[in-house]
Amino acid sequence: MKDAMNRSHPEHPLTEEKEQRAVQSIEVGGRLLLALATSQTPLTLRDLSSLADLPASRAHPYLVSLGKLKLVEQEAETGRYTLGPAALQLGLTCLHQLDPFQAALPIAQQLAESTGHAVALAVWGNFGPTIIRMIDAREPLHISMRAGTVMSILGTATGRAFAGVLPIERIEKAMAVALGDPDGLKISLLRATPKALREAVEEIRDHGVARAEGRPIPGVNAFSAPAFNHEGEPAIVITAMGHQDHFSADWNSSAAQAVRAAAAEISGRLGWRSTMPSQTIRN
């Protein structure tokens, strides 16, 4: 009797023991919509059904229903299919609701959990790269970073990840404000670092991540990568860091690969479709 009561208690819902019910017809229609979303041009019924892995005879009735909902349109002249105005409205609403931090946080938490490394999320603020969340390493790592910490633009992996993809004007402005020179009267001093900026661009272009090797924190290595929004703009930077004894600084290390993958996943959640972040890097 006691066991039966426990199973019926709200904390032990029976639904947790069973796979959630699904509606197959919605899944089939979704496959067609997702296939259309991957194409840059309208598709014939044959090509669309092939991409959705469906017989054309089965796909067609779904397309008729989706057309009634204005999720799909068919070109009158060619008969090809494309996403409709209702799909556009759904996409715009989704983009409006997107919060880069909320999109990135579960991925950052998973990165910290799977690697054991400390993980930070940063956005570009008035003074430059600003930490908005710090997830501690599994084992103590003596660093002073916390939410609100402003990172050096060229002296940290987080800063260089931004410097490698942001317009030079935004970098110079942030550096001027940090120097107490918001009007740019000392801007010539900032332009004395073209080599460092080139290196930041090259890091992201060649490796997809920026690296810190024992600096600015002695004995601590880090990799940082920018994540992009639907317009290809850097929205947030994710950084993993750890003690050099357990955190290889090799460009192809497991840590570097994990940070690249995490940034790509965040970009995907933010609507960025390219698999090549270097396409957004300034010349």
CATH architecture of the largest domain: 2-Layer Sandwich
Rg from C-alpha positions? Answer: 24 Å
Order of helices and strands: HHHHEEHHEEHHHHEEEH
Average of per-residue pLDDT values = 83
Q: What is the number of domains?
A: 2
CATH homologous superfamily identity of the largest domain: GAF domain
Between the first and last Cα atoms, what is the distance in angstroms?
Answer: 71 Å
Low-confidence stretches: 1-17, 181-190, 275-281
What is the count of DSSP helices, taking H or I runs of 4+ residues? 11
Tell me what portion of residues adopts beta-strand conformation: 15-25%
Q: Structural class, judged by helices and strands?
A: alpha+beta
State the CATH class of the largest domain: Alpha Beta
Strand adjacency order, main sheet: 4-3-7-6-5
CA-based shape? elongated
Query: What do we call the CATH topology of the largest domain?
Result: Beta-Lactamase
Total count of strands: 7
Helix percentage range? 40-55%
Task: Give your account of this protein's structure.
- Strand 6 and strand 7 form a beta hairpin.
- The strands form two sheets. Strands 4-3-7-6-5 form a five-stranded antiparallel beta sheet, sandwiched between helices.
- Helix 3 crosses helix 4 and helix 7 crosses helix 10 (194-207).
- The N and C termini lie far apart (71 Å).
- The chain has two domains: 14-96, Winged helix-like DNA-binding domain superfamily/Winged helix DNA-binding domain (Arc Repressor Mutant, subunit A); 98-280, 2-Layer Sandwich (Beta-Lactamase), CATH 3.30.450.
- It is 43% helix and 16% strand.
- The protein is α+β, with helices and mostly antiparallel strands.
- It is elongated and about 65 Å long.
